[in-house]
Write a structure and sequence with these properties.
This protein is an alpha+beta fold. It is about 15% helix and about 50% strand. The chain has helices at about 5-10, 50-60, 145-150; strands at about 25-35, 40, 45, 60-65, 65-70, 75-80, 85-95, 100-105, 110, 120-125, 125-135, 135-140, 155-160, 160-170, 170-180. Pfam families: DUF1285_C (PF21028), DUF1285_N (PF06938).
Length: about 180
């Protein structure tokens, strides 16, 4: 049975299968890379079928610093340049208090309600915000989405440092900081 057939059989109709409960032996590595811009490549060629990206994204697992595609019986290593997901859009839900909801390139959505959901990651000599999609899997922000998000942010001064922040669910989230020189 091919890896793809094994994935389809293992997933069935489950939106997010229990990959954290699957611990098969490593079967090797496949030439699949998720680029920093969210492009998925197989043997150097971009995926043309978005449904394949969605299928593989549902069985993505991270152990330590390594990423894997897993089923109950197979585990193959893949490469991820930076983050496996990319935030491509967001909306502000107007409830009693504004709440941000983010959407990524693999049809995941995450509502920003807890302080631990936004972190920073070092990439290309910069500290950039990332957002948790599930467990230890994070998404970076596409450039256009990040610029749109900055338009909704406020700037808060603390001594000589300015923080760019958004408020969601009555919590303050820092997206970056800069100093006046």
């Amino acid at each position: 049975m091919s890896t793809t057939e094994s994935l389809i059989k293992a997933i069935g109709d489950n939106p997010l299968p229990p990959v954290d409960q699957w611990n098969p032996q490593l079967c090797g590595e496949i030439d699949l890379i998720i680029k920093a811009d969210g492009t998925w490549l197989y043997q150097g060629t971009p995926f043309t079928r978005h449904k394949m990206i969605l299928l593989f994204s549902r069985v993505l697992k991270k152990e330590g610093h390594q990423y894997f595609l897993v089923t109950p019986v197979e585990k193959v290593a893949i490469k991820v340049e930076w983050m496996p997901f990319t935030i491509i859009d967001f909306e502000i839900i107007q409830q009693a208090k504004p709440v941000y909801r983010f959407f990524d390139n693999c049809e995941n959505s995450v509502t920003l309600t807890e302080q631990t959901q936004i972190n920073f990651s070092h990439y290309q000599s910069q500290q950039l915000p990332i957002i948790q999609i599930r467990k230890n899997l994070f998404a970076s922000f596409s450039r256009s989405c990040y610029y749109n998000l900055l338009q909704t942010a406020s700037i808060e001064q603390q001594n000589d440092t300015h923080q760019v922040c958004i408020q969601s669910n009555n919590l303050n989230f820092c997206l970056g900081e800069f100093s006046e020189r």
